[in-house]
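#struct-pred

JT: dropping the chains for the assembly here, can someone run the whole complex?
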Amino acid sequence: MADQTLDAKGLNCPLPILRAKKALKDMATGQTLEIIATDPGSIPDFEAFCRTTGNQMLESKQDGNLYKFLIKRTA
Amino acid sequence: MANESQGGAGASNAKSMSIIVTKGSLDWAYPPFILATTAAAMGVDVTMFFTFYGLPLLLKKLDLQVTPLGNPAMKMPMMGMHMGMPNIVGMIPGVDAAASRMMKNLIKKKGVASIEELREAAVESDVKMIACQMTMDLFEYDLKDMIGGIQLGGAATYMEGALKADINLYI
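RK: done, full complex below.
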């Protein structure tokens, strides 16, 4: 279970990333953020975001039209 | 902000990027603001230098317009296809306003951020915004009509940052 969930459904680039960053900023290191998005572009973007910022992508999966990511704040 | 370890102002070893913003139409305002906000979210120190037609993007009140004139690549989705606009039609008064309205509707419908929203995100994430002093004088803009938190500067101010930046873009 994630510490926090971000509903990014219906949002287009770059809003899911911006909202996620905003949420992560207020979380403690080690906490996890679940993001639910509908933008297919968010798959490569969240991967790139994690690689660049050093936050850890624990899970990235597709559930119908939804894309779900679980990111652990490590940076 | 308490826990700010992912960059932002003051992160001395962060990567940095500068963008020269020269265009202020609704469509051209997107690339600089999207890249600036995303880079800031990824821990990059960002500086935006607003000059010439990009300068009005710093005005408090924005009313951005787009024109199909001279832009054969601007095709809007309509009735299941993509329609461009012949230049002669684009010249008719009111067509720019209609095209702008249409694009703003699309932006809203598709969950794309407005420029106002992106600009606010840029301010919140400590993106440094520099208004070109020469353009302010040239086109008679007043700092009091612009959003807060911006700085004034010229080419040398830009160059000082650009020489140290990892990425420099001209849009």
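JT: nice. Residues 16-60+115-170 of chain B form a domain with the Hypothetical Protein Ychn; Chain: A, fold (CATH 3.40.1260.10). Residues 95-109 of chain B form the longest helix (15 residues).
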